[in-house]
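Regression check, zinc ion case 115:
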Amino acid sequence: MVEFCPKCGSLLVPQKSSDSKTVLVCRKCGFKKTTDTGNKYMLSQNIKHVEQDKILIIENTEAARTLPKVKGHVICPKCGNDEAYYWILQTRRSDEPPTRFYRCTKCNHVWREYE
Ligand SMILES: [Zn+2]
Ligand SMILES: [Zn+2]
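Current build output:
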């Protein structure tokens, strides 16, 4: 997968950093990007076994802070709030529909949508 520098548009070159993580480096302006894809792959692998852990991991990721919000047609089972962040995950075999998770904007309770 090829990625480009968000600052100057140059090609980002993968390099090993000191703690053996791969970082993408822009040779033109020096921009550095830590690759977090390994983390995401881990999530999808763990998901079948430790679903609860995965939910907690997702809560802590950068992405969780920019999750889309839904208001009005969800109700938090804990506090009754009708506004929640949501994300969708393929939790089971790929021929089954993905599961939707919600996180209450008020009490941070996380729950999943059951079919
Ligand atoms: Zn650059
Ligand atoms: Zn709540």
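Comparison notes: Residues 37-46 form the longest helix (10 residues). The mean pLDDT is 77. No diff flagged against the previous build.
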